[in-house]
Amino acid sequence: MDSPENKLAASSARLALTARPRRNRKSEWARRLVRETRLSADDLIWPLFLLDGAGRCEPIASMPGVYRYSIDTALEAIEEAASLGVPAVALFPNTDPALRDPHGSAALDPENLVCLACCAIKRAVPGIGVITDVALDPYTSHGHDGLLVGDEIVNDETVAVLAAQAVNQARAGADIIAPSDMMDGRIGAIRAALDAEGFESVQIMSYAAKYASAFYGPFRDAIGTNKTLRGDKRTYQMDPANSDEALREVALDLEQGADMVMVKPGMPYLDIVRRVVDAFHAPTFAYQVSGEYSMIEAAVANGWLDGERAMMESLTAFKRAGAAGVLTYYAPRAAALLRRG
Ligand code: PBG
């Protein structure tokens, strides 16, 4: 009777509140009624790693639950993703080290892993969009996205190769070309090269605001560039301290013909996503990069986070920030969970 709680309850006057925001949160149906953003499988793009051979599905130590697939096993996984409603996949090759050279020549090989996979996917799973990455890092012996002359990544010479790489991918059936290299002027050059070859309907999703980030570490393990990368990428990828510069980059890419733009990494850069969406009203995607995925999974493995909840909350945050969609290693898992409801 005389407990401290009871005394407190008796003495506390009712607050004369007109607004009680908690009313709209009182039950699950009420929360559903006022929910502002909704994640769906349509929002998810699945980045996927490829390797040579057949029947292979190789785990990546720094990305628990993510694999490198040979083309045949990739097809099965992509079929499954398509059946869960994932609209598109983004392909990243782990190129045989013997095929890497200083010029990234294999990027132009019509039978490289990405081109072969592209053809195979378009044949086997025609209903899914295929996004190919334009950059030289999976193909160069030094691990840079461009051509290295002395210790400089040379811009214009690189752009010429990237335009040829994009055409090579379009010939293999790529639906969306996604330049992730951050060279100046590459979107215009790629658009012109695609159009000159009759690929007017191939879209460009530009990695417009891509930062020089520590969060790419596990990805570089996945494609095998972590040990070989000479120096860093700070002369072409953006300084994480900058925000106005992202708007200038996006403006340039849209002027040059980008159909969609991307901000990368994702969660630490949601402020950039919001600014880009508000400034340009163009389809804006965010990449929940490898390090973001691995951080969550490492915490889950330690029992420190609830994996499903952390996954869905992180993906919802992208939608709330205004993203049209998210490139995420969680795509099939999140789509499966959304399907189960
Ligand atoms: C490189 C590229 C990178 C990623 C996508 N394309 C890494 C880099 O710039 O070194 C990172 C994706 C991820 O971390 O998940 N062209």
Describe what you observe in this structure.
The protein has about 350 residues and is of the alpha/beta class. The chain has a single domain (about 40-340), classed as TIM Barrel (Alpha-Beta Barrel). It is about 40% helix and about 15% strand. The chain has helices at about 5-10, 30-35, 70-85, 115-125, 155-170, 185-195, 215-225, 245-255, 270-280, 290-300, 305-320, 330-340, and strands at about 45-50, 55-60, 65-70, 90-95, 130-135, 145-150, 150-155, 175-180, 205-210, 260-265, 285-290, 325-330. α9 links the parallel β10 and β11. α5 (about 155-170) packs parallel to α6. Ligand PBG binds near residues 135, 216, 219, 220 and 233. Ligand PBG binds next to α7.
Brief characterization of the structure:
The chain is built from 12 helices and 12 strands. The protein has a single domain (38-340), classed as Alpha-Beta Barrel (TIM Barrel). Helix content is 39%, strand content 17%.
